[in-house]
Amino acid sequence: MTKRLPKTDVVIVGVGWAGGIIASELTKSGLNVVGLEKGRERKTEDYFMVHDELRYGVRYDLMQDLSKETITFRSTEKIRALPMRQYGSFLIGDGLGGSGVHWNGQTYRFLPYDFEIRSKTIERYGKNKIPADMSIQDWGITYDTLEKYYDKFEKTAGISGEANPLGGKRSAPYPTPPMKKSPAMQMFIDSTTKMNLHPYMLPSANLSEPYTNPDGISRAACQYCGYCERFGCEYGAKADPVVTVIPVAKKTGKFEIRTHSQVRRILHNGNKATGVLYTDVTTGEEIEQPADIVVMTSYVFNNVRLLLMSGVGKPYDAASGKGVIGKNYAYQVIKGNAVGFFEKQQFNNFAGAGALGVTLDDYNGDNFDHSNLKFIHGGSLSITQTGLRPILNNPTPAGTPAWGPEFKANSIKYANRALSVGGQGSSMSYKHHFLDLDTTFKDAYGDPLLRITFDFEEQDRELAKYLATKSADILKEMGADHIDQLKELGPYDISTYQSTHNTGGVIMGSKPESSAVNTYSQMWDYDNLFVVGASSFPQNAGYNPTGTVGAMAYRAAEGILTYRSKGGSLV
């Protein structure tokens, strides 16, 4: 028998960055909030002995258990989708803080172009520049409107950085100065400046100095240990929800976190959400949590899957192009990179931080002329020093045997003589790239798995080659003696890690016919149901998504409070 609990003001599904921000803002305003997290409790003390590359980097200790819940994948509708049984292309976080615990901390703002991509592309190049099967669309919101929310997130997280010379206008500088420059980063700055490019220090959630944020949360500075991505931070220097926003919500006494709570359905009556149904994974008990307002703040895949399983919103149909839930799945083109090998110079590549680096946007967005190019948008180019841990990193020049004396000699020789310059390319949405429920495979509870239909397109192949060439040009200017670069981008490979930058499926827009949520992340047809996260991106930009997720979460919190007092649609 299902256990029914007393109603709360707000129930949040997933307590990561978006959930933590919304819980903090709503509880400070006096609302009672329940946060449901399917993973375990987390705190900084858990990472005091975190420098274990095998446990965290190779065996994915912070990630979701794929034997109990995973996704299925196919490149086209013509082939059968199969479950992802081991981690590869992306990593799905698990536990309090979600993917905000194991991220690197790179915290960009999207370019103004990103939010008005369709209209701006047509304005400059005409409608024929956009392929017929490409389904990009404007967000319904501009950078200028979102700017104050970016600023708020950066001050909460204590982002260390300097202004992007080719980015949107800022109302204030970053709250902390940029991180340290390594010799390799200085070489990149000197070389790209000579090339008339515009390098700037990468905006970092790894604190450059001790910092106290506007909520009174104090954190220590980064130690440059190199254990960020796939790891939690034992210093609390890397901003994550557990050390920033969640403590603020808990301090109010109005936030209750329930871990080990697998939400399985959004409950609704007519066009109103009434609460959620979840399973206590420690006991197997089914529990109903009624609420006046339901907020979906879990990872992209779970946001989409729960809506589809609950019959909330109209599922997307690729054949007709109708429906919105599951529409416009997009990813990231990370393959536009080059590696330079240096015979006479050595670098300390084992020291670093997740967001230590220099980047430039001369080839990002529409900052360059695309008239004679076979793609739109572009990507940021960066050199990063994230700390090359020894198990997963072994750079050798192309042509080196995979074993034997030459392999060993080159492994030793180039361990600290190789530098990578890479592109983080945008990912445009297509009508035939989408998310839906698998018709065959189910999770441990008997619910259908989410199915991804996605592959790289000609747009991606041309973009990757372009960025790889630009990366190689920079390494040549830096003095590399030998350069290996991407020549061709093959089909999308889900077995090889690329990035955990999955987006789309519950996209944002200006009208309900083509989007699932409005610019406050409120569902068009369920006004007390908000869906927040990268699932709202109509396509993906040439950056990490977290800064934009944080900004959108602050805007959503503002919208929820307005809805609480006035009701109705916010648009």
What is the second-level CATH architecture? 3-Layer(bba) Sandwich
Our count of domains comes out at 1
Subunit arrangement of the protein: single chain
The residue fraction in helices comes out at 10-25%
How would you classify the helix and strand content by structural class?
alpha/beta
CATH class: Alpha Beta
User: Using only CA atoms, what is the Rg?
Assistant: 23 Å
Count of DSSP H/I helices = 12
Q: Overall mean pLDDT score?
A: 96
Uncertain runs are none
CATH topology: FAD/NAD(P)-binding domain
Content of β-strand: 15-25%
The largest β sheet comes out as:
8 strands, mixed
* Shape summary: globular
Could you explain the architecture of this structure?
The chain has 571 residues and is of the alpha/beta class. It has a single domain, classed as 3-Layer(bba) Sandwich (FAD/NAD(P)-binding domain), CATH 3.50.50. It has twelve helices and 22 strands. Strands 1, 2, 3, 9, 10, 11, 12 and 22 form an eight-stranded mixed sheet that branches. Helix 6 (143-157) crosses helix 12 (546-566). It is globular. The relative contact order is 0.19. The mean pLDDT is 96.
Draw up the topology in text.
Blueprint: E1 3-4, E2 8-13, H1 17-28, E3 33-36, H2 53-58, E4 71-74, E5 82-83, H3 99-102, H4 112-115, H5 117-125, H6 143-157, H7 183-194, E6 200-201, E7 211-212, E8 218-219, H8 245-251, E9 255-258, E10 261-269, E11 272-280, E12 286-296, H9 300-310, E13 327-330, E14 337-341, E15 357-360, E16 379-384, H10 405-413, E17 418-425, E18 434-442, E19 448-453, H11 458-478, E20 482-485, E21 503-505, E22 529-531, H12 546-566
Parallel strand pairs: 1-12, 2-3, 2-12, 3-9, 4-19, 12-22
Antiparallel strand pairs: 4-5, 6-15, 7-8, 10-11, 11-12, 13-21, 14-17, 14-20, 15-16, 16-17, 18-19
Domain Glucose-methanol-choline oxidoreductase N-terminal: 221-330
Keywords: FAD, Flavoprotein, Oxidoreductase
Family: Belongs to the GMC oxidoreductase family.
